[in-house]
Amino acid sequence: xxxxxxxxxxxxxxxxxxxxxxxxxxxxxxxxxxxxxxxxxxxxxxxxxxxxxxxxxxxxxxxxxxxxxxxxxxxxxxxxxxxxxxxxxxxxxxxxxxxxxxxxxxxxxxxxxxxxxxxxxxxxxxxxxxxxxxxxxxxxxxxxxxxxxxxxxxxxxxxxxxxxxxxxxxxxxxxxxxxxxxxxxxxxxxxxxxxxxxxxxxxxxxxxxxxxxxxxxxxxxxxxxxxxxxxxxxxxxxxxxxxxxxxxxxxxxxxxxxxxxxxxxxxxxxxxxxxxxxxxxxxxxxxxxxxxxxxxxxxxxxxxxxxxxxxxxxx
Amino acid sequence: xxxxxxxxxxxxxxxxxxxxxxxxxxxxxxxxxxxxxxxxxxxxxxxxxxxxxxxxxxxxxxxxxxxxxxxxxxxxxxxxxxxxxxxxxxxxxxxxxxxxxxxxxxxxxxxxxxxxxxxxxxxxxxxxxxxxxxxxxxxxxxxxxxxxxxxxxxxxxxxxxxxxxxxxxxxxxxxxxxxxxxxxxxxxxxxxxxxxxxxxxxxxxxxxxxxxxxxxxxxxxxxxxxxxxxxxxxxxxxxxxxxxxxxxxxxxxxxxxxxxxxxxxxxxxxxxxxxxxxxxxxxxxxxxxx
Lengths: 315, 290
Prior knowledge:
The structure holds 2 protein chains of 2 kinds.
Chain A: H1 2-29, H2 33-39, H3 45-54, H4 61-73, H5 87-122, H6 127-141, H7 144-158, H8 175-209, H9 212-219, H10 224-254, H11 256-261, H12 267-276, H13 280-308
Helix pairs in contact in A: 1-13, 2-3, 5-6, 5-8, 5-10, 6-8, 7-8, 8-10, 10-13, 12-13
Chain B: H1 5-16, H2 19-36, H3 72-108, H4 110-125, H5 128-139, H6 143-169, H7 173-180, H8 185-193, H9 198-221, H10 233-240, H11 248-277
Helix pairs in contact in B: 2-3, 2-11, 3-4, 3-6, 3-9, 4-6, 5-6, 6-9, 7-8, 9-10, 9-11, 10-11
């Protein structure tokens, strides 16, 4: 088991190196290169020379990359050009908000998706199944930013029940306010993933329901409820864990648009702000962190999968 | 490439036999016509009627007017042009880069396969929207940049589809025969294998059109996509969101057009997949929804 985890971690190293190189060298593709970004368009030759020396841009590019990576590994992602605050600190301020939104959305997605999949799979081919399948197709296809706007229109403009703009309130400080402030963006994302969750779980439930062991269980006289609860659900949940993990990982940074709809102060909006102000250290740093978290969550899911499924060999 | 006109008609008939797919086809056909002949309809997406700003639907303006007094219906129709053209360009770009990558990786195997597919995996590791944003950061904000950014995110899908096709066709007799006659690698790849791989590639093109339209709208919604005043659905949603109290239809109607278009491409892609490959092989791409 430990060997498996270590091997998986070793596999990650080339991916992270390649990704960080991609992110770093992107800055060299900018017209005028990184110096133009640092000093602005109207800089004098003296200012350009000064900035080039100051930021070590006169060194060989590969050496600059290695130094950048080394500092990143030591927790130094540079300083934001715009606010002059360390990039890591800015990311640290936004990360809890993003994680909280991702977790709430996933809980909503599971609460909607699991019952939908169960009903669909048990009543396969019925009108209810068709309605629910249609619903998940809709949940998947409708853009989250339009759903978000419709939710704002209904709950904030018409009913005046909830705020149109969301803020970050830590759950452990004020659970009720947190719910009020986060429910609309979380519902927007949750509705979307519920479609994915329902579709995948329905598929694996139907596959399990047709398995031999279910026929054996039925012939032993077990009730349908007991078969589903004790056997089918447990097996169908295994591949499902992967999907839940992938979606959760996707929300770290992938929820940019929903964050923008509700002006939620998450990591995604930090990237947008960084791009709008051409704040390259912040762009590089935040994309690197988002990517690292994304890859790490995927790794955790793989490990968890092996852990909960005794049939999988660690080799 | 599509064998003959007869085969194409046959496939179209089988797709159209499915009611949902037929509805999607009719909708997309009408939208394409409207977008193409938008100029001939006498609609002007830029003309301002400044005494009638942020109005609801009326006889003069069936979809209402925006914050500058422009006709929202005209902007939705011209927005369709922007949206469809960008998506088409992006999907063609993705196929033009992705298919050769997949062909070469699958055909030669070995180190070329290892290197190319690692690059593809890397592209897949980033959520699509993040990658598009990173590219916009480098390219700057323009219609071309939006097209390229959306297109690049589609490259891995085409590379994977093409590679899978090569692997399954490579050992077939007709490919072996062509090679036995001394065909060059590029002849085998592009003249023998590729023409027999069009069905999954075509399906991907239709499905990815819906993803491309969504992504382009998302970029415009975030304010980094196609720059104004070019009408774009994402940009209209972005501005309309600021006026939800005064003019709710401003954001709702462009969003409806966007949603219907995305659903239509998705429905059509699934139907095509079922007709061509016997089953719905379309899986929701990772993190393509922002």
